[in-house]
Amino acid sequence: MIIVFGSINIDLVARVGRLPRAGETVLGPGYDVIPGGKGANQALAARRAGADVVMVGAVGRDGFAAAALAELAAAGIDLSHVSRVDAPTGAAFIAVDAAGENQIIVASGANAAVRATALDALSPAPRDILMLQWEVPEAEILAAARWGRARDLRIMLNRAPAGPISAELADLLDMVVVNEHEVLALGAGLGVTGEPDAVAAVLSERHGLAVAVTLGPAGALCWADGIRHESPAYPVEVADTTAAGDTFCGALAAALDRRRGYETAVEFAAAAGSLACTAFGAQPSIPHRSAIEAAAQVLADQRNPDHRRLTE
């Protein structure tokens, strides 16, 4: 089982010809209202990748709440631990340009009311996975990690948006997932500088955790137990990169929940993240397990062509 402790948002998404510079207004033809939030996105990605998922978070009592939860409910995610609070449902304001790149502003709203004490109602099994992100209060993230460690859970943190974490939190984690820019901010906060690959290797060794780094069109790498694993991206035509990182995280958690090793789990996650770039919007773009498995098999065959020939 995977427990996701994190944010639930509604995304207001506008397509534009190019992203605005500071102080500039750029016109778009319209906008879409799409469920999102890093916690919710990762929960849906893990569920579509085949895992049983519980979502712990908060929404408001406003009209956006039902829309923010709709895809999660349809996927069969356990939402009984999502609180209703007297604050507006979290919202993200997203601009996506013609190349699929984006700019995002997040208004926390109800996500600021998420509390780690909500986890006390759960009875997880040892080695279940607890997924954390950085769109709920920092103190609650640390409290959730302590809760998970006391129950022998595997704890995964996606440190996004970018920034440092405390050494205490790093030592509670089993895995951190960041992109090539976020890993530098993470490393700087823990006294490690250098190129993304080298920073990931040092953090992994120093804190005894796996460090996965997404590299956009170059794929992903992961340092764990002194071993470097890597996977190229699955080749796609990019429409929108908004949920690629969240999809990678959810698919990675789902693969690890099925007791896959890091090599095949990173490959599976890289395939999922690539597929998420082929459709517009966060949650609508998240792929299902069958599509991910097919794309991951292509990557596996590229990694080991001799095995492919033997099995054809």
From TrEMBL:
GO annotations of cellular component type: cytosol
GO biological process: D-ribose catabolic process
Listed pathway(s): Carbohydrate metabolism; D-ribose degradation; D-ribose 5-phosphate from beta-D-ribopyranose: step 2/2
Assembly and interaction partners: Homodimer.
Positions that bind K(+): 240, 242, 276, 279, 281, 285
Role this protein plays: Catalyzes the phosphorylation of ribose at O-5 in a reaction requiring ATP and magnesium. The resulting D-ribose-5-phosphate can then be used either for sythesis of nucleotides, histidine, and tryptophan, or as a component of the pentose phosphate pathway.
UniProt-annotated location(s): Cytoplasm
Entry binding sites for substrate: 9-11, 37-41, 135, 246
UniProt KW ATP-binding keyword: yes
PANTHER family according to UniProt: RIBOKINASE (PTHR10584:SF166), SUGAR KINASE (PTHR10584)
Entry binding sites for ATP: 179, 214-219, 245-246
Cofactor: how and how many bound: Requires a divalent cation, most likely magnesium in vivo, as an electrophilic catalyst to aid phosphoryl group transfer. It is the chelate of the metal and the nucleotide that is the actual substrate.
Molecular function via GO: ATP binding; metal ion binding; ribokinase activity
Active site, renumbered: 246 (proton acceptor)
Protein family: Belongs to the carbohydrate kinase PfkB family. Ribokinase subfamily. Belongs to the carbohydrate kinase pfkB family.
E.C. code: 2.7.1.15
Lineage of source species: Bacteria, Pseudomonadati, Pseudomonadota, Alphaproteobacteria, Hyphomicrobiales
Domain of life where this protein originates: Bacteria
Reaction(s) the record says it catalyses: D-ribose + ATP = D-ribose 5-phosphate + ADP + H(+)
Origin species: Phreatobacter oligotrophus
Protein's recorded name: Ribokinase
